[in-house]
Amino acid sequence: MKIVIKGVVIPAICIILLGQIQVYAVRTALDDYIEKPDPSYSWSLYQTQPYYGLGGGGPAMGTIYTLRMTSQTWRSATEVNRTQWNHWVQFCVPVTPTPNLCLLIIDGGSISGTWGTPSDVSDYAFAANLLGCCLAYLQYIPNEPLRFSDETFNRSEDAIIAYSFDKFLDRYAEGVPDMEWPVLLPMVKAAVRAMDTITAAAAQHAAELLAKEFGCEIADELKTVLGEHLGPIVGQRKFEELVRFMTGYLPSQVAEADKPRCGSENSLALVYKGMSAVEKIRYLLGPTDPSKAQPGSVRREYGSDIMINAAHASDSPESAARELGIVRVEQDDIRPWVEKYYGT
Is 229 designated active site? Predict the structure, then answer.
């Protein structure tokens, strides 16, 4: 690892590594809203059916999985007549799909009742087969029509967006901004939840294929054994990704002769000593997950996810001593500044 500013060298109690902060984007209200847990999110399989060529002719070309999805709850019942957003997600899987590739088509449409009616996606499914990839069709973005509590008529599409921004500006002018008013936020979150649903449905589909084609029924005890064997492998891969993030290289792909060389990424190492040093520094950084960190903390302001969370801090004096042996802080570039501005 290449250390640009090697730190304040005083007896080590806590070491902090700040990696690549300059490339992080500032978090937005959209980040917070999408990552905000919502217990109303759920999905279930409604029906499964084969699809054929144009006009319904020829042999089966794949399968359409029709899913019911509740993406979220937006606003309260005192503000709008429909708070729970429901959608149809139709997942078209060709007989021989391209791995790791799926198209997501986002559509609008008026929803009647609780769920409405799923669209006919046979033409889209045929197109997916020509492209050789899976395709998902998401309906009701946004859920509409909506009737807001201070109005006597329904709104749809751009009229909903205009109303929601008007409410946002009103709250802002009153000095109590509500960042979740713009309806574009739940519209984006619904698309993200559709991708989560597709991923889960694809995993379920794979398990069904194993059972159907090979008779592979994975028992709970076998899942435990697989977890014990695969866990360390996954952990090693995660560790390699962490090293790559900090140095620019994957350890498994670096020649033995090149390992003593500096990495291609820059980091800032700080060594801090004082009463309750570990607790104080970790409070300033915030929780490992930036979405759960307090405003003003390092990870909330500069992190983007658990992996790219802006900084690492020792969790104990023992860990600090071990990590100092790894990072090898050898020069002190910050101490003169500290002494100049804050005294000795």
Answer: no
Q: Per residue of the chain (344 residues), give pLDDT as tens.
A: 333 333 333 333 455 555 544 444 467 899 889 988 898 999 999 999 998 877 767 788 889 999 999 999 999 999 999 999 999 999 998 888 887 788 999 999 999 888 989 999 988 888 888 888 899 999 999 999 999 999 999 999 999 999 999 999 999 999 999 999 999 999 999 999 999 998 888 777 666 666 665 666 666 565 555 555 555 555 555 566 666 666 666 676 777 777 777 666 666 777 777 888 888 888 888 887 777 788 888 888 877 666 566 677 888 888 887 777 766 666 666 777 777 776 65
Q: Residues 41, 155: one domain?
A: yes
Backbone φ, ψ for residue 244 (5° rounding): -60, -40
> How far apart are alpha carbons 148 and 200 in whole angstroms?
34
- Largest CA-CA distance found in the chain, in angstroms, rounded: 84
Q: How far is CA 64 from the centre of its chain?
A: 26
Overall domain count for the chain: 2
Structural tokens at position 295 = 């405003």
* Assessment of whether the complete model's pTM goes beyond 0.70: no
Give the range of the structural domain holding residue 308, as residue numbers without chain letter: 2-20+265-342
